[in-house]
Amino acid sequence: LARGTAGPDLAGRHVVVSAGGTREPLDPVRFLGNRSSGKQGYALARTAAARGARVTLIEANTGLPDPAGVDVVRVGTAVQLREALLKAAPDADVVVMAAAVADFRPETYATGKIKKKDGQDPEPIVLVRNPDILAEMAADRPRPEQLVVGFAAETDDVLANGRAKLARKGCDLLVVNEVGERKTFGSEENEAVVLGADGSETAVPYGPKEALADTVWDLVVDRLG
Ligand code: CTP
Ligand code: CA
Fold this sequence. Notes:
Elements: E1 14-20, E2 24-27, E3 30-32, H1 39-50, E4 54-60, E5 71-75, H2 78-88, E6 94-97, E7 104-106, E8 127-129, H3 133-139, E9 147-154, H4 158-169, E10 173-178, E11 189-196, E12 201-208, H5 209-223
Parallel strand pairs: 1-4, 1-6, 4-5, 6-9, 9-10
Antiparallel strand pairs: 2-3, 7-8, 10-11, 11-12
Helix pairs in contact: 1-5
Cytidine-5'-triphosphate (CTP) binds near residues 101, 103 and 151.
């Protein structure tokens, strides 16, 4: 159903997509991470390239092969992801934050491996907040016409939580997934509602991540000047 299959409606556009999940190191062998597979972000990158866009894909810890015709930048942590985004964003028409960014990172990094000591309880891990990259990208746009798209996984009152998050982040579109049994991380399929800052609400039925990606690009194309 995607209109994108009809032609290169993103030709001449530069899109920046983040994918995967950040890992926040504790010591040289350990990290705090999340289960994001990166597949939705890669589907966004592939479909944007197929629709004619120049694509910069900033990936965190996916282990996925580079999509053809896409510039790939590899990062590890949230702070590195922010730096890569700030570098890529100035000439982007669209920034899509599909990556799962760790909300917290360990306050300190142990340069040597943390060892257990006989008869001693472990030291607590102190966490500090990571920057909210999406909110920052939406607030400080290098070009006023740049579009910013976020993702959110929600439970309970999914739409109300999504609306509140969209407003808080200040982005143009928010792709809201309901977290549930079938809708697990790492799957090939997804189901979502895309909320627009203009009040729009687009339901995307359970199906391939490419179909959701094409719907996101349809909504983006509608909003590009
Ligand atoms: N995000 C971000 N920087 C962060 C955290 C999240 O850019 N430090 C982005 C994600 O890439 C995603 C969107 O914000 O596009 C929503 O992420 P989510 O974790 O749902 O939002 P949070 O504000 O962290 O809210 P919560 O407390 O529900 O985790
Ligand atoms: Ca979060």
